[in-house]
Amino acid sequence: MIRELKTLIAVAREGTFSAAGDKIGLTQAAVSAQMQRLEAELGFALFDRTGRSAQLNDAGRHTLAQAEELVRLYGNLGADAAAHAPDPRVIGIGAIASVQRSMLPDVLARFHKQCEGARTRVVPGVSMGLADQVDAGELDMALIIRPPFSMHGDLRWTTLLREPFRLLVPRHVAGDDWAEILSSQPFVRYDRVSFGGRQVDRFLRASHLSVRDVCEVDELEAIVGLVARGLGVALVPQTATHRRWPAGVRAIDLGPHTFHREVGLVHRGNRSMSPAARLLAQLVCEASPG
Fold this sequence. Notes:
Blueprint: H1 2-14, H2 17-24, H3 28-42, E1 47-50, E2 53-56, H4 58-76, E3 90-95, H5 97-101, H6 104-114, E4 119-124, H7 127-135, E5 141-145, E6 155-170, H8 178-184, E7 186-190, H9 195-206, E8 212-217, H10 220-228, E9 234-237, E10 249-252, E11 260-268, H11 275-286
Parallel strand pairs: 3-4, 3-5, 7-8
Antiparallel strand pairs: 1-2, 5-11, 6-9, 6-10, 6-11
């Protein structure tokens, strides 16, 4: 997001998307795309758009002041920590929890057999944060949920698998009418800060369903555990580690209304990657079951 905040500052200083692009070396379309991503992430409009012109609105001016402070703080990060900088020979790979439990161990084992002497570092996190770290050059690559916005030109995306969402219910809950169950049972919500949680939220709104939230959780294993204990029902993706659900729950297929969570690999252009990092990315793609 720092990239987008810097672009926002340039737009405010230069007056137009075109002038800001000339200043920071982007096309007008690229500046516009970054501002759209920033607005999507923040959840509100920053500009009043009329024809081809775009002026900061009140929310945009307030955000601009915060952006300038965040960029200043970001620029000072690590100023006195050069001695603790990460070893450039270590390949950093970010991974969401479900991938760490499924495909990643086999991939890393194959990589280290083929590339003796190499070192890797697995960084856990949520998709948005890991994507930002790849964008900033802090990680070589990341295995994440596909963002709900397009990535800028320097990042590459490869879809590895598509995981269908199911309605997970405690074993004692009867019936297969997913809409009726969602409307009547307590709901354990997939955290809306995550990309997967946003998909759930969009699905509920598109289906015009009102649910009774009882708990909001990011970790999928925790959500499954809560459903198994009878706390409520949940919409969760069927990951590779959930080919068989725990005994205390059952999964209801959403039929033609099924939506999917895309999990994939994000990395910068090949010219920015070492040969060892390119090999690791290749092995990740080869291991994809999708």
